[in-house]
Amino acid sequence: MAGRESGRIKDSIQKRILDDDSRKRRQKKALDALEQDNFHEDPHADLVMSKKVPKFQEDNKNSTRKRKTRSAEYFKLRFRKNFIQLVEEDLNYNSSSPNYTTAQVPQSCYPERHFCTVCGFPSTYTCIPCGARYCSVKCLGTHLDTRCLKWTA
Amino acid sequence: MRMSSSVFVLDNGGWTAKVGLSTDSPITVPNSIMKAKSERRRPFIGNQIEECRDVSGLYFMLPLQKGYLINWDVQKTVWDYIFSKECCPINLSHTSLIITEPPFNFPSVQEAMAEIFFEEYEISSLLRINPSTLSCYNYRHKNPTSKCCIIVDIGYSFSHIIPFVNDMKIKAGIRRIDVGGKLLTNHLKEILSYRQLHVMDETYVVNQVKEDSCFVSQNFYNDMETAKLKIEDNTIVKDYVLPDFTTIRRGYLTDAGTTLDQQVLRMNNERFSIPEILFHPSDVGIRQMGIPEAIMDCLKACEEETWPHLLSNIVLIGGSSKFPGLQNRVLNEVRSLAPIDYTIKVHLPEDPITYSWEGGKLLSKDPGYSNLIVKREEYEEEGHALCYDKFDI
């Protein structure tokens, strides 16, 4: 028996719904973006700095000094460790006493609040495909046009 | 024994370093190298940025990541600038240095720090200390009767809650919330770019927008309702006039709809929903407690008999504690969480940014100061082991 059924229900089956894992991935990506120093590329990246250009600073005047100052580059190589390495090292080295990892506050005991991802006001509805919050049909429209499933990694 | 002739205090923050000799007042120096689109010949180090006419699209190279010193080449360049004639000309070999580090700083970062100062800058002695300890010292100096205090340091990279009992830090009670000024600025950048105008490249300007227009709401949902009203009845909505770097160097807040010929950002619920993240990190998906709840959580690690003393001496420091209304909101929320028979007082210093620096200045005049430091000769003799023994983490 084909034919008579709700068009809305038929459409909703075809609609792609993001699974929990990709929702989490998206959220992690958004949180990582909040830690970025810069959004854009180094504007001087294409410049070639000539090393032959003399520096007209105190280096020349202080030529009588015995000690040779080391360049900033030296220290970059000398103490090369990234943040994740440092945290892991710290965990291995002093796991029993309070450390960076244990100092993080636990989860709040209050429920999360929800805000419209479009306008920022308190929201009551959830977008079915991606789980974002919205507050009105107008904001849902904007969300569907601009963000929903558009950045899927 | 001969005393060092001068003490230099360097509060090495993630956004700005607070520097100066203990005989002077502090200078605030951006702790970064910045590159401008308009000036392609050179980068700007620290306060050199004041020479830059057009700061749109500023690119930042920061030495600290999540509050910890990671990019040593950038840091060395900024320190070179700080100790140079341009900023604070000092003779390092006759100077004792107080430098700050975050709580639970990593051992290899600490070793690198000692090495750089003793072997490269050849300072005469070093004191490596927490900014919160300096703030505690400053607070105790002004309030000698207060035996305990909780330092709430809301900085650029993160916020820390650190309890002190009889000047001793209770390590088990230290709490970190991964929300600071940087996250707030980045989130504001994100929502403004989505709703109004693409400002993702304008960290520097949006940071000023945040400083100039954001405040902490005292009644969040009421303010949300107010923000929904039309402009005539809405007491929250404002326009932020953006700088154009010809006539306007720094933007400013003005009544909504009054500016026609300038580029503006309409600031409505953005004004208070940004600082709100400090109280509800879960609003942006960070599953952590907010500041008042974290203060109560930190108490649990301290002895119950210290609670009344701790709660009546809560001190807010750090740049992000300058949001209008923050002090009152912390007070009200802690009040509602804490037992009724405890008095709660939240102290906001006149300048929460330089409060730790001032503490360092006072500490350098303390008769016990010479026992805290490690001298260059001692370091050469005993190395890092001595630094571990002498400096608290």
Automatic annotation (TrEMBL), chain A:
One of its GO terms (cellular component) is nucleus. GO terms for biological process: chromatin remodeling. It comes from the Eukaryota. InterPro entries: Vps71/ZNHIT1 (IPR039723), Znf_HIT (IPR007529). Residues 1-44, 50-69 are annotated as: Disordered. Residues 116-148 form the HIT-type domain. Keywords: Metal-binding, Zinc, Zinc-finger. One of its GO terms (molecular function) is zinc ion binding. PANTHER family: ZINC FINGER HIT DOMAIN CONTAINING PROTEIN 1 (PTHR13093). This is Zinc finger HIT domain-containing protein 1. It comes from Ceratosolen solmsi marchali.
Automatic annotation (TrEMBL), chain B:
It is found in: Cytoplasm, Cytoskeleton; Nucleus. Keywords: Cytoplasm, Cytoskeleton, Nucleus. The keyword Cytoplasm applies. SMART domains: ACTIN. InterPro entries: Actin (IPR004000), ATPase_NBD (IPR043129). One of its GO terms (cellular component) is nucleus. Gene3D superfamilies: 3.30.420.40, Actin, Chain A, domain 2 (2.30.36.70), Actin, Chain A, domain 4 (3.90.640.10). Coiled coil: none annotated. It comes from the Eukaryota. PANTHER family: ACTIN. Belongs to the actin family. ARP6 subfamily. This is Actin-related protein 6. The gene is LOC105361411.
